[in-house]
Specification:
heterodimer, A: 230 residues, Rossmann fold, 2 domains, 5 strands, B: 269 residues, alpha/beta, 8 strands, globular
């Protein structure tokens, strides 16, 4: 019985359905329980929050990621799924305190100074939250100093930097350099992304990782996270 | 509908390489092909990022030089760096030109505004300020008002301004098609002498069959008041739709332009 609910939760994430009234990717889903109804009744059937999150929500999101990589799912599909995960997490949040569950880590994200693009950064933030990370979004057009101060004060495990202009991508290097000057570089793993950014560029400025899209960004963060543990 | 040909843009890797290698023949051919396809202006963007400012200004000067020598069509000088635009203007002799672009950010108004006034150029004005692209009509209008107020102070006329209402991807927020269309209507009613210009590619980001989505948005925007479009003139389906849109909203007397294009074999369905 609990296993059934896990797979139903997975399915409702894949379908991107928050409540029973939502349409899904597939036709004919209206009326079937959405992630809200399922998560609300899951603890009563003996499921741990841990299982709901890792097997149900993250499990569903992993499949969404595969479908996106395969070209079967598009950005609106992916966002609907991520919103379903966020809705479920909101329901589960009050129970976190009662159990000893921690988030997977904290990541600060920002679009660098003089760059006003935030769509890509927002998508990455939504997906990271869906994957169980605590995300602090500083916004766009953020001063190098402000990013460095945030790293010093919040002590995140990860820093995600975004730049969409060829004229602003160099600011990502400025951030890394200032972190070094302030002795903070070793405390945080840095991932970078944005249209003009490439793997080579990421390496050349001394970033720890590069994500070409939202799901790659998560894969890179997960790799780096397991790397830091070992 | 005015057509601004978008193809000479360094964000396209092939074009960036041609500029880096100073491949005059390739770039001149690209300008000529767009002219032949009906572009009223040729946009030129030489990039500004990877190298130094010196490299960027040298690249735009060279690019402007070879294109203006090869075609009659006026240019749209496109850069997010005021220094690069300044350098391009030193090279460009044409009386008619577009400066692409300015926003309501004070630093951009202060650097680009005087160039517009001095050259009596047209200028593309993006409906955004220091906070980036708003997802709301009101804030985009506020940006337009700030730009118009500043430019008017320099003696620039509304007729020199092409407002870009801006487009956010429909894939991320399904209200954004209407936000752009309403912004167009509002700008039109506030500044009847100004023009409205738009790029077509943003609306479809993240969706399959992007060209279809882009093309479908065009007649809607035309109805809302679009006057000019930044587009690939070699996309003959988009160019056909531009003619159709103008005709359907009464901007093509006796359907002359549509039929002329048809007789040339340029209308495709």
């Amino acid at each position: 019985m609990p296993e059934d609910i896990i797979s139903l939760i997975q399915e409702s994430v894949i379908q991107g359905r928050i409540t029973k009234d939502d349409e899904g990717m597939d036709e004919g889903m209206i009326g079937q329980p959405g992630v809200t109804e399922l998560v609300e009744r899951a603890p009563a059937s003996g499921l741990s929050i841990q299982n709901i999150i890792t097997k149900g929500l993250s499990g569903g999101m992993n499949i969404v990621g595969q479908k996106f990589e395969a070209g079967e799912y598009f950005i609106p599909d992916m966002l609907a799924s991520a919103e379903a995960v966020s809705a479920a997490m909101k329901i589960l949040q009050p129970r976190f305190a009662a159990s000893n569950i921690k988030t997977k880590g904290t990541i600060i994200v920002a679009t660098v100074k003089d760059d006003l693009h935030d769509i890509g950064k927002n998508i990455v933030s939504i997906l990271l939250r869906g994957a169980g990370y605590t995300v602090k979004d500083l916004g766009n057009n953020i001063d190098t100093q402000v990013i460095v101060d945030a790293v010093r004060e919040e002590k995140p495990q990860f820093l995600g930097l975004s730049a969409l202009l060829t004229s602003t991508m160099a600011r990502m290097a400025d951030v890394i350099q200032m972190l070094e000057e302030n002795g903070l570089r070793d405390q945080v793993k840095i991932i970078v992304g944005g249209a003009p950014v490439s793997e080579e560029f990421a390496k050349s400025i001394g970033a720890d990782g590069y994500g070409a899209d939202g799901f790659q960004a998560i894969a890179v963060v997960e790799d780096l996270a397991s790397g830091t543990e070992s | 509908m005015l057509v601004i040909g978008e193809n000479i843009n360094a964000s396209n890797k092939v074009v960036a390489e041609a500029i880096a290698k100073r491949d005059e023949e390739f770039l001149v051919n690209l300008a000529k092909a767009q002219t032949l396809a009906g572009a009223d202006f040729i946009d030129v963007n030489a990039g500004s990022g990877h190298g130094s400012l010196q490299e960027a200004t040298a690249a735009i000067r060279w690019l402007v030089g070879i294109i203006q020598a090869a075609i009659e069509q006026p240019l749209s000088i496109d850069s997010d760096s005021p220094e690069v635009i300044k350098a391009a203007l030193q090279e460009y002799h044409g009386e008619m030109l577009i400066i692409n672009s300015v926003t309501a950010e004070p630093v951009r108004l202060e650097s680009i505004g005087p160039l517009v006034a001095e050259r009596q150029a047209w200028v593309i004005a993006l409906a955004m300020g220091t906070e980036g692209i708003s997802d709301r009509v009101e804030e985009r209008l506020t940006a337009c008002e700030q730009i118009m107020a500043y430019l008017t102070g320099l003696g620039v006329k509304a007729a020199q301004v092409l407002f870009d209402p801006l487009v956010l991807p429909i894939a991320v927020d399904t209200r954004q098609g209407l936000v752009t269309l309403k912004t167009i209507e509002q700008i039109k009613s506030r500044y009847p002498d100004a023009r409205i210009v738009m790029g077509l590619s943003n609306i479809s980001y993240g969706l399959p069959k992007r060209k279809l989505v882009n093309r479908a948005f065009l007649p809607m925007a035309a109805y809302a008041g679009l006057d000019a479009v930044i587009v690939d003139p070699l996309d003959n389906k988009a160019m056909s739709l531009i003619k159709v849109a103008d005709m359907l909203i009464g901007k093509d007397s006796s359907c002359r332009a549509y039929l002329r294009a048809h007789r040339k074999g340029n209308i495709v369905d």
